[in-house]
What does this fold into?
Amino acid sequence: QEAYTFLGSPSRWFEPDCGLPVNYLVDSTGDPKFGSTASRAAVDAALGAWTDAPTASLMLRDSGLTSPSAFAGCGANQVVFNDPFNEITDPSSCSGILAIGGFCTSGGNPCNPPSSSVVNGTFFNRIVSGKVTVNNGWDSCAAWTQCNMSEVLTHEIGHTIGFGHSADTTATMAAIAHFDGRCAGLKSDDIAAVTFAYPLVGTPPPTVTRTPAPPPTATPT
It folds into this structure.
């Protein structure tokens, strides 16, 4: 039985059904410890981790740099650093909320002909916007390395593509960061999640039996 969950009602991007990528803009200011170039590289590694899952059709792309916008509300997909709009409780003594991630849903369908809302026997709402905001105050912490920031970004981008926290403590989508050198890597439960929600065309449905998950809590990563 898989341990992954969906963030609220099952939701996914429909773009992969017709071969379209999901594009993210990246905050040009970057993390204050690493700067714009290294921060963007960490984002690209996180996007690549989900894109490179060999059994899934999802394609996430860096579509350029931009000025940061607030996490609240919908709009363009964006990864923002340093919580510029003070939307996250600041960390204390290198402990606290690392980042937040989420999505907005809406109607419509980007594919022609339209793709189905039912995937592997599950009805999915359509995601139309995904956002990540990384907290401030981590630049003086020894654990805040580019590798560990990549893990956090991979986790939060996982929220933007529909996934909640996994009960598998080894998964990148687990509620607690690992900081074990995995960087932007996925584990087996993460790959099972993206394979279920974004199967390759012609891929038979998985044979595992999933236990319905309880509603996600509001506790951020």
Observations:
- DSSP finds three helices and eight strands in the chain.
- The beta strands are 11-12, 22-27, 60-66, 78-80, 99-106, 118-119, 122-123, 125-134.
- Residues 203-219 have pLDDT under 50 and may be disordered.
